[in-house]
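Data deposition worksheet. Section B asks for the primary sequence of the deposited chain exactly as it was used as input, without tags or linkers unless they were present during the calculation. Section C holds the resulting structure in token form. Section D is free text for depositor observations; keep each observation to a single sentence. Incomplete worksheets are returned to the depositor.
Section A, Depositor: J.P.
Section B:
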Amino acid sequence: MTIARWARRGAGPVPAVLALLLALGGLAGCGASTPLRSERFYRLDPAPLAGPAGTPVPAILLVNDLSARGFLGARQVVFRTRAEPLVTQRYDDLLWEEPPTSALARALVAALRAARVFEFVVVPAERARADFLLGGELERFEHLATEQPPRVAATLHLALVRSADRGSMVSRTYSGEEPLAGSTPDAMVAAFTRLSARLVGEAVRDLQANQARLRPTPP
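Section C:
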């Protein structure tokens, strides 16, 4: 269901939210001759937050793509409304360039390399023999279109384990919300980007705080 169809079902007379719904549904203009809005593909690319880089752990970290259930593993932008909080909905014409699970894993790789937490940070395609594995699950990544103010929300759980025995080293859930700075799809994506950067930064700081006990298992 597009957000335009949802709006016609009656979202309530909230001007700011209605403006956002109209913008996201491509309803600007009037008349039967209005062309259909084409699909828009957005890149989720949170830049690593600047921070101190210490001495890296002399080990190889492999960062896997995050897992996700249901719609979160796909490319359509997910939204939820106050009127139907238990219903997960997707925009038909607003899509991610790649699934958020892959984009967030890529952001983690970039941030960990920039912070020099480990001597080497690799991805599965590099086929390196890793000392530690970082993975987890994206549990929430949605636009809360009818909240006041409208915002986006995300929750991801990350776990760091030793590759030798799968012993758990660090395990934590990161969650947050970010308000939109405008009433357009671009503003929504910008809010997702800011929130993603903040959560990735928290994960990197957690790993930095545990560097003293992160040492590879002797062969």
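Section D:
The radius of gyration is 20 Å.
Residues 185-209 form the longest helix (25 residues).
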